[in-house]
Each structure stands twice: as C-alpha cells, then as structure tokens.
Amino acid sequence: MTELTVLAARNAKPRDTMYRLAAGKGLYLQVMPNGAKYWRLKYRHLKKQPKMISLGVFPQVGLAEARTERDRLRQLIDAGIDPSTQRRADRLARELATENNFEAVGRAWFSEKKSGWVDSYARGVISRLENNVFPWIGALPIAEVTAPQILVTMQRIHERGATETAHRTRNYLSEIFRFAIRSGLAERDPAADVVGAIPAAETFHFPTLTEPSDIGGLLRAIDGYRGTYITRYALKLSPLLFTRPGELRYAEWCEFDLTSGFWTVPGMRLKMRKAKKAKAEPHVVPLSRQAVQLLKELHALTGAGRLLFPGERSSDRPMSENTVNAALHTLGYKGKIVAHGFRHMASTALNEAGWDKDAIERQLAHKDKNRVRGIYNKAKYVMERRQMMQAWSDYLDRLRLGDEATMRRTNRSKKAAA
After folding, report:
1. Which residues of the chain have pLDDT under 50?
2. pLDDT digits over 34-46, tens only?
3. Is the pTM of this model over 0.70?
4. Beta-bridge partner residues of 27
5. For the domain with range 99-194, which CATH number is right: 1.10.150.130, 1.10.1670.40, 1.10.3720.10, 1.10.260.40?
6. Active site (annotated) includes residue 276
7. Using an 8 Å Cβ cutoff, are 225 and 235 in contact?
8. pLDDT given at position 397
9. Three state DSSP letters for 54-84
10. CATH classification (class only), 6-92
C-alpha cells in the first residue's frame, strides 16, 4: 500500500460519508463529508479494543508533524502508557497548575470519576456540589479550606432537613481532598475532622401499604384507573412483579419468554456501580399466570416496538419515571404508596407468610454479601420463587375480590403474634 503524500492529503475530496487515508503505522487522515480533515492515530493498549486519538487538523498540522507526533505516541504505547490517558492527565495538571481553588479541583475530581458512574448518579453528585458547596467555599484555595468551614457547609444543608445529603456531601469533600493530596495541591483532608458532627440521618422507607384490606382497596382502585392503557398496565404489573421501577420502565419485549413464564432483566439495568454492570449476571423474574396474561394483553398495544412502556413523545424512550407515581396520586394514594413501595409491600407479606427469606431476597434482586452462597442461592431458589410468585399473585387476586377469610386469617395471625 502506498503511503499518504502531502499532495494526496491536500487533494482528498469529501464524500457522502467519512473515510480515512492511511499514512502508516496506524496514522490516518480522516476526511469528513463537510471537507474537514483530521489526523487520527489508531492504536491498541494492553491488548484491549483499538482506540483512536486525535493528532490535529490538516493542513494546520502537516504530514511530517503528524508522523513525528505518531512516533512519539508509539513510544509511550511501547512503554505501556495509554496516550489518551496521558493526555488527560497532562491537561488536568495544566488546569490545576493555574487554578487550585476548591471548585476547580472539585470539577477535576468529578471529571475523573464520572466515567465510572451511571448518568443519573453523576448528575446527582455535581448537582449537590454546585448547589451546596461551590457557592460557599468554591473560590477558596483548596489548601486553605478548614474543617470549621466544612462544618458550616454541612450544617447549612442539615438545617433545611436534608441530613442524608449533608452526609453524602461530606463524603464527596473527603474524596476531593484526597484527590488534591494525590495531585500535590493539599496536604490533608479536613473533611475527615467533621465526621460525626452532624446527627445521623433517619432511616427512610418508601411509603407503602401492608394491611390486607388496604392492599385490596388499592388493587380495586387500579382496576378503575381511567388514564392511558399503557399506564394502566404498568400499574397492574407493578405489584405482581415488584421489581425496581426503573427495571420495569426500561423493560424490552426481547427479554420476555411468555411461553416459559420468565423475564430476564439484563445485568446492565440492575442497581450497582457502573463498572460492575457490564459483567453483572441477569436477574431472572418468574412470571405468574396473571402476569403473563397482562403481558399478552399489553403486547397487543406495544409489541410492535422495542419497549413495553414507551413514552408519549417518543417510542424509543420509556415512559417518565414519575408516570406510575402520578397515577397513584390520581387514585388518591399520594403519600400512602409510591412505585418503589410495591417491593416493600411484597417483602412484608411474603415474609409474614413464611416464605424462605433467601428466596424473597433473590426475588428482590438484593445482592448476597457472601459471593459463594449467592451463586448457590441463585440456582437453588428459581423453582421456589416461581411457586412464590404464583402464590403472591393468587393472594392479590383474593384481596382484590375482598376475600374476608384471607383478611381474617391474616389478622388472627397478627393478634396471636402480639
């Protein structure tokens, strides 16, 4: 193959789609449909997937300059250094050399960490810093921030009733200071000095219903819901499946086997750190006969698309995360139960009914801290969970019909326990 020449680079004409001209040893001239031309180096680091790194724009960066930079980066790669990572580190060092106030360092820390977080978590972290920290201590040199200033910042958050946010914010501050220490911008972490200075946050539980008569009333209210069909089916399936609301909202038809009665939730949708999601095993949800029937009815409405519950504005995006909660408010259950509360409802009832606690935990997709035991339980409880899910659906049917015998038996059991 003939290597690229300066004349060929200058004469390269745009096409309908982007294309590349090889310039040797992984160097390419990338020609865009708008006529712009960029130098790109394709490389592989530690036998991972190939990467591309920019070497500048042609003709501002000539062919000889691009090849010189290519050779320099190749030396880094041969030394085991990823040039993309090195470039980010160099840029960060330049930024910190000119700005070492707390906000600049905090944003640099955030930029480094956010790639390992799910988007919603990352948005929450930067929002808490921007609203609770940067306006007060952001302009201070990070090495001059003191423990009393941090304590005042935390107290300000605590006094407005957001105690949990105050504790989370202190954790972020400690991480930022440790980042600054590694970068040579601070010598210690003053946020560690205020651990325990703010009262512990009260344990928060999602509102839910646990009395059989209340559950029956809710199920009858759901039957009478007059909103959209898609929301109606989300309401009906939520108590039967009691998965996390986000897992249900993003559910896709390809994940369901209605013949065998199973829903396989991909590991990427489970609640865990982003770095672990890619390798996470799926969560299998046994489907009761009632759930399968509802899903078949829903398939007639949305089965031609990808999502079970597409949004109103776009079929490629799921319904809003507030849809089910808003529907519950409409039914008169504001403050009494939320979408996540169906999980607590089912857990309470199934534990009281005597089902195996490990089977219930597996159904809730709670992680077993004992890794070996967790793998064992995953296989062991599939059949028991299928029986449990069918019994749960049958129980809900009895409550929906106002089965007084079921309610009396439950009440007698509670009185006997008391």
Report:
1. 272-278, 371-377, 407-408, 411-418
2. 999 999 999 988 7
3. no
4. 24, 41
5. 1.10.150.130
6. yes
7. yes
8. 95
9. EEEEECCCCHHHHHHHHHHHHHHHHCCCCHH
10. alpha beta
In which residue ranges of the chain is CATH 3.30.160.390 found? 6-92
Q: Please list the residue range(s) of the chain that carry CATH number 1.10.443.10.
A: 212-417
Give the pLDDT confidence score for residue 202 in this predicted structure. 57
Catalytic, out of 37, 67, 170, 244: 244
Contacts 24+ apart (CB under 8 A), 57-63: 58/9, 58/29, 59/9, 59/10, 62/6, 63/4, 63/5, 63/6, 63/9, 63/23
Cis ω before 59 (30° cut-off from 0) = yes
Q: Which of 70, 340, 344, 386 is catalytic?
A: 340
Two structure tokens written together for 409: 């038996």
User: Is 340 assigned a catalytic role?
Assistant: yes
Which two tokens mark 120?
């919603």
The runs of H, that is alpha helices, within 160-256 are: 163-182, 212-223, 229-241, 245-249
pLDDT tens digits, one per residue of 305-362: 999 999 988 888 899 888 999 999 999 999 899 998 999 999 989 988 889 888 888 8
Note if 107 is an active site residue.
Answer: no
